[in-house]
């Protein structure tokens, strides 16, 4: 089939696979894991009833409880990063290249919470460095904010979901204790919740079309839901609302209600 493709079509197909997250060749030929039924070596001895399986020896853990305990034990931002690196219960960790923890200035007055890393963020290990991040930087610059000086940035999920899938409720629930601890340790005056996932994760509800621009409270701090810059890239007409929200953020930072 490849013989029939011209160079540009073949390259576009490869780019598409990379965009979906298939950016490494592990074997010469693909394996359909859904069709592999008998993965045990043929010569493996039968498991006897007297020997409990490894799974039976691992105590049942509630992933949200485990996250709460690990997050609460972290007494600094670096300790929190280490706790998240060590957290074993989120399936996204298996497919992501690395943890994407935060960028910017911890302790800044403004803390932005986004959704999850995309491809660029997964490669670089920093949040909002791809196209949406570039737009975010321009939006911040419009009200004299700058991640190298006075903004701190993180995401609800620190690992890239395969194919940039929407975060699931289970994933948001298990990472929420870490994000909440992150907020407490960073101590911002104001939070910006970028998009539905951040609203779902920290406020427990979504509906960004209605929620944007309406101040909420998270852990006793004012929190402003805003359109996600990735959405604004797809719907530039909505930048007008985003501009109004940026002005509201600026006014809040200047001490106006
Ligand atoms: N979108 C997000 O929500 N976070 C990132 O870090 C990148 C894109």
Describe this structure in words.
- This protein is α/β, with parallel strands linked by helices and 257 residues long.
- It folds into two domains: 1-58, no CATH class; 63-253, Uracil-DNA Glycosylase, subunit E.
- The protein is 44% helix and 10% strand.
- It has twelve helices and six strands.
- It has helices at residues 7-20, 54-57, 63-73, 77-86, 92-95, 119-124, 131-142, 169-186, 195-203, 208-211, 229-234, 239-253, and strands spanning 103-104, 110-114, 151-155, 190-194, 216-218, 221-226.
- The protein has a six-stranded mixed β-sheet, with helices on both faces.
- A hairpin with a 2-residue loop joins strand 5 (216-218) and strand 6.
- It is globular, with a radius of gyration of 22 Å.
- Uracil is lined by residues 114-118, 121, 127-128, 130, 132-133, 155, 194, 230.
Question: Summed up, what is this model?
Answer:
This protein is α/β, with parallel strands linked by helices and 257 residues long.
């Amino acid at each position: 089939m490849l013989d029939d493709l011209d160079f540009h079509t073949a390259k576009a197909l490869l780019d598409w696979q990379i965009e979906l997250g298939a950016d490494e060749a592990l074997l010469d030929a693909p394996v359909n894991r859904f069709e592999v039924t008998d993965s045990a070596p043929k010569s493996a001895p039968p498991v006897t009833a007297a020997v409990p399986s490894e799974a039976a020896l691992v105590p049942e853990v509630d992933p949200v409880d485990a996250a709460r305990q690990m997050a609460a034990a972290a007494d600094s931002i670096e300790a929190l990063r280490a706790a998240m690196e060590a957290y074993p219960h989120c399936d996204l960790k298996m497919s992501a290249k690395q943890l994407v923890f935060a960028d910017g200035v911890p302790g800044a007055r403004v803390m932005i919470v986004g959704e999850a890393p995309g491809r660029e963020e997964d490669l670089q290990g920093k949040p909002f460095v791809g196209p949406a991040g570039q737009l975010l930087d321009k939006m911040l610059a419009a009200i004299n904010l700058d991640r190298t000086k006075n903004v701190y940035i993180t995401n609800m999920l620190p690992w890239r979901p395969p194919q940039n899938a929407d975060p699931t409720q289970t994933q948001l629930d298990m990472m929420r204790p870490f994000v909440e601890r992150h907020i407490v340790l960073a101590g911002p005056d104001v939070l910006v919740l970028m998009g539905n996932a951040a609203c779902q994760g920290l406020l427990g509800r979504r509906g960004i079309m209605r929620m944007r621009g309406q101040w909420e409270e998270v852990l006793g701090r004012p929190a402003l839901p805003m359109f996600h810059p990735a959405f604004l890239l797809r719907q530039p007409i909505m930048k007008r609302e985003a501009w109004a929200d940026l002005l509201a953020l600026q006014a809040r930072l200047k001490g106006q209600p």
